[in-house]
Amino acid sequence: MAKHPLQDVAIVAVHNTRQARHLEDSEDKLLIGAFRAVLNQAGLAPRDIDGVNIHAWTEGWNGLDAIGWLGGHTCWNGVHMPGIASVMEAAGAIATGQCHTVLLGAAQSGAHRTRTQTAPWTRPDYEFTACWGMFTAAQFALIARRHMALYGTKVEALAEVASSIRTNGAKNPAAVFYGRPATREDVLSSRMIADPFHLLDCAMTSEGGAAMILTTRERARDMDVKPVFVLGGALDRQGQPYTVPPVWDLCGQIGGRAADICFAQSGLSRGDVDVCEFYDPFSFEIIRQLEVYGFCKPGEGGDFVLDGNIRMGSRLPVCTNGGLMSFSHAGAVQNLQKVITGAMQLRGDLPPELTVEDAKVAMISNNGSAAITCDVMLLGTE
User: Fold this and answer.
1) Which end of the chain is more exposed for a tag (fewer CB within 10 A), N or C?
2) Are 17 and 148 contained in the same domain?
3) Do 58 and 150 belong together in one domain?
4) What is the pLDDT at residue 242?
5) Which of 256, 237, 261 is nearest to 6 (CA)?
6) In the listed set 186, 221, 256, which residue is the last one of a domain according to the structure?
7) Nearest-5° Cα angle at 83, 81 to 86
8) Is the dihedral of CA 38, 39, 40, 42 positive or negative?
């Protein structure tokens, strides 16, 4: 098949700031620090950037602000939220000649300091959800419970997912929960949040920033970097997130269409994927994605993970940096960080014990079932 035009776009620099449960740094300080890091990595100056898209949850910084920080020269400006959507938007702008070198960034701090409540982004205030206490954990829990009823999925399978991801994070010095592994028994003995999710089945809340630079294949060749290429990507949407009941028949398959498009764009098969940086807000979502993306049949995801297939050194390592459960969950930043982790894995930038040997293709996802949005991307070394 003909090469897809996005495959002429390369990720040439990625950076995560320090991640922590609480940071004293403002969001603009986090963003500017991340910008400097990726510019230095790529050997670029601010004037070399002609495309920008940034996001800050609390302070409201956007791409127009960033253009000013870079010197105020004319630039393409993206509008999508951080993550696969913003990366695909930027890649499309580069592939169509609207710009040649794009800086993406995101930061969050100061948004969640009251620990008596769940994070504000997990408490939708829509009229048909708020009054029933339908917070994010409960919405994803209902999806998981339906799968368990349909296929007999065991709670131990959910615990295996959480244990695998948290064990990875415990080995990552950059992770918020570095040095804090969890066994299946630890997960199952942690307190219940929303049946079947125990505390350790759930993502954390944290703060931090991140940035990325994309450019053309030709420009990447002139840089002293190891480029990672966009092989394919697609977005699945079913409406406004969290406004409809989390019904399996409605949203249980979301992401499947996007995954099929990705593989068609890239000319690759499921067997070509070496590592998966999947979105892991709750443990079951990994099982769902493995099925929906075609790595196992419907109802077989639980057994797939119980057989050890997502651990480091196995067939399909998942969330190798510790994911949202252990590395970081800094609001919207974490969607961009999924793409960053895929690039880091393919560049060999993770600690040796978390590096998948000879990995050439990484699959990344953002969001999931109860959010009724799911984005998928494939990155490659070639």
Assistant:
1) N
2) no
3) no
4) 76
5) 261
6) 221
7) 60
8) positive
The H-or-E segment that residue 290 falls in is helix 283-292
CB atoms within 10 A of CB 352: 8
Task: Write down the number of H helices and E strands in the chain.
Answer: 13, 11
Q: Which tens digit of pLDDT belongs to each residue from 243-278?
A: 777 889 989 999 999 999 999 999 999 999 999 999
Contact 246, 370 (CB under 8 A): yes
Specify the pTM: 0.94
Task: Establish if 116 belongs to a structural domain.
Answer: no
User: Of 358, 274, 271, which is closest to residue 316 (Cα–Cα)?
Assistant: 274
The reply to whether 135 and 260 lie within a common domain is yes
Q: For position 75, which CATH number holds?
A: 3.40.47.10
**Interhelix angle for 333-347 vs 84-95, to 10°?**
70
Q: Write out the residue range of the structural domain in which residue 273 sits.
A: 126-203+229-380
- Return the ∠ at Cα 337 (arms to 351 and 110), rounded to 5°: 115
Last residue in a domain, options 194, 221, 248: 221
Contact status, residue 32 vs residue 71, Cβ threshold 8 Å: no
Nearest CA to 292 among 184, 367, 198, 355?
Answer: 367
